[in-house]
Amino acid sequence: MTDFSEAMSVAASGMKAQASRLRHVSENIANTDTPGYHRKVVSFEEMVTNGSRSGAVATGPMRLDRTALDRIYDPANPLADDTGHYDGSNVNLLVEIADAREAQRSYEANLKMFDQVRQMSSALLELLRN
Amino acid sequence: MDISKLVAQNYAASKTAMAPEGSGGSAFAGVAQDFMSTLRASESTAMSAMTAGADPHALVQALAQTELAVQTAVTVRNKVVEAYQEILRMPV
After folding, report:
1. A66: closest CA of chain B, how far (Å)
2. How many domains is chain A partitioned into structurally?
3. Range of the domain at A32
4. Chain B residues with at least one Cβ partner in A under 8 Å
5. Residues of B with CB below 8 A from A121's CB?
6. What is the DSSP letter of A41?
């Protein structure tokens, strides 16, 4: 593997990781109103292939955010207890939107790197063309 | 004047310079093998992306790598053909 193709695969792994992060963010947003839902968080870790660090990134195992759930007052809800409260989700839309935007920016950066590597190797071959 | 001796000497010298190297063929075979494996990998990735819904990132990466490999192969081939034609045009 040349440096060029390795750089491309690393950039592709970054894009893949950010896409998976965005998927978890959209799951969180979709379940904002689900009672008892804990928001999902993913961590990133460096990929290890054949016992050595390859420089590529991958998402680690998905974890649940264990902060306390929102107590929502709604006596008409069938889930409500004696005080009229029930457990909502602990999703904060503001945090999710910020997370989504961060994933988008990271994705764009990886995409730019991918394109740059492609352009560089194309330009190198262009030297031989004429 | 011993011109024929000189000519024979020159001829022998140029013959050793023109002789192909032993390892040249195997190196080229390795490059071709690499090219083939890149092409094959991208083909299978494209196939699985279309049928089994594989990761689009892998598809894009494989296609970009194939594009570069084909570009390299075509450029090298053009250079080789050019060199061959240059030799053909050589006045003898």
Report:
1. 31
2. 1
3. 2-129
4. 55, 57-58, 60-61, 64-65, 67-68, 71-72, 75-76, 78-79
5. 68
6. E
